[in-house]
Amino acid sequence: MPDIFISQREQEKEENSVDSKAGLRFETQEKEEKIIFLLRKHWVTNIPWLFLAIILILAPLVLPYFPLLTFLPWRYQLMAIILWYLLITAFVLERFLSWYFNVYIVTDQRIIDYDFYNLLYKDTCEADIEKIQDVSVKMGGMGQVIFNFGNILIETAGAIPNLEFEQVPNPASVAKVIHELRDKIGGEQGV
After folding, report:
1. Cut 0.85: pTM above it
2. Domain span including residue 178
3. Membrane-crossing residues (predicted)?
């Protein structure tokens, strides 16, 4: 739970207890920086590609009913099926890694957006909390309303690019905490 929701006495108790995010670290984390949220796309966003993968896995079972490939020798058919399953495995692995490593981190000092494109390329954008000008939530469609996920657009000051958290769970709650963090840091700095 973010520090802004915890009373002083509970904070002292919490510092002595095991925090669920205490062991989490990311590569550019400062020594005194605390992780408040570690967000990924909602798990429901994986259903379309999982459904497609299941259909593709079952596809070779209907091949005997199509005489198109029967002219090939049995060994070539077996190699084609093995290659088919290797391609499906690569597809599933790529989609899972993309979902797992695209993370959005909200700390008590800044917001970081890690975009994982493939094993060789990733993009990182970050903005200090005090540079945030506006936070808006966008939820559209029945699925997003039912499962409570949506996009959060974070507008920042100056040349810093705007950040967008795509399809994250509980976007209104996350946006509220970001607003409160910004107000808390702005109040400490006398802004």
Report:
1. no
2. 3-24+34-41+102-188
3. 49-68, 74-93
